[in-house]
User: Which sequence fits this backbone?
């Protein structure tokens, strides 16, 4: 819905993020588009995703899961180094 509302295209987005592979430089924000001040990863439509999955098979899932683990590791690392606030 956000992609349509803000006129965002399919790329850059989730597909380019996954295609970058597990050793790609940068994080998901390099593939995000601006949706009214909010960075979003635009995903492929169902027909396109079906073609990608048929072409790549389980490789697509492996690439996406590696990227998710990489993102979660970076998030945990930055949370540990973030200054704590006490009220």
Assistant:
């Amino acid at each position: 819905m956000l992609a349509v509302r803000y006129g965002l295209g399919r790329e850059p987005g989730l597909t380019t993020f996954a295609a970058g592979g597990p050793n790609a430089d940068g994080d998901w924000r390099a593939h995000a588009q601006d949706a009214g001040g909010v960075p979003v990863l635009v995903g492929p439509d169902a027909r396109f995703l079906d073609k990608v999955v048929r072409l790549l098979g389980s490789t697509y899932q492996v690439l996406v899961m590696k990227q998710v683990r990489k993102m979660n590791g970076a998030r945990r690392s930055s949370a540990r180094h973030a200054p704590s606030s006490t009220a």
Notes: The longest strand covers residues 33-34. The mean pLDDT is 77.
